[in-house]
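DM between two lab members

TW: hey, do you still have the Magnesium chelatase entry open?
JB: yeah, one sec
JB: this one, 187 aa:
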Amino acid sequence: MSDDVRNLKAKNEDLPLSTMKVPMIDLPLGATEDRVCGTIDIEKALTQGKKAFEPGLLAKANRGILYVDEVNLLDDHLVDVLLDSAAGGWNTVEPAGYQRASPSEVHPRGKRQSRGHEGELRPQLLDRFGMHALIRTERDPELRVQIVEGCQKFASDPKGFRLDGNTRPTTRSSQTRSSRRRNASRR
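TW: and the structure you got?
JB:
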């Protein structure tokens, strides 16, 4: 529980509720620990003479997705920060004697290069990812052209692209329907 929520509960005040879209925050490869965890807001400290906290990417990604491109190239100290906050669900920052704790329930997503020379992913971090998929580059030039053309069609008209794909009946969809009917009759 954050300090703000703890204070409201101590006073028996109602907690404000709101709905929001699930945040998706990018963690850049060269991010510093201050940027990830948060730090004192220097601008407010200098202009207003107040200690104020500037939340980091973990606080912004709370209850959302933290996307790490090239996750295997992330600095070890940032991997430790991610593991600590993921294990406890909290991000505690103590810059210059100022302590601040904020919830950090993030769902990590990432991409890594499979080339061995770029570093392996630590097993503790790998456990935080729910799914792993090996994606390889298509080498057939004709198929690559078809993929690019399909992407361009989707980018220019997503609804039309989906409708075009749905008008062609596939064997798999008919198999799925018949399988569902068989399973329903067994119940």
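TW: got it. Strands lie at 24-27, 38-40, 53-55, 65-69, 90-93, 100-103, 107-111. The two ends are 45 Å apart (CA to CA).
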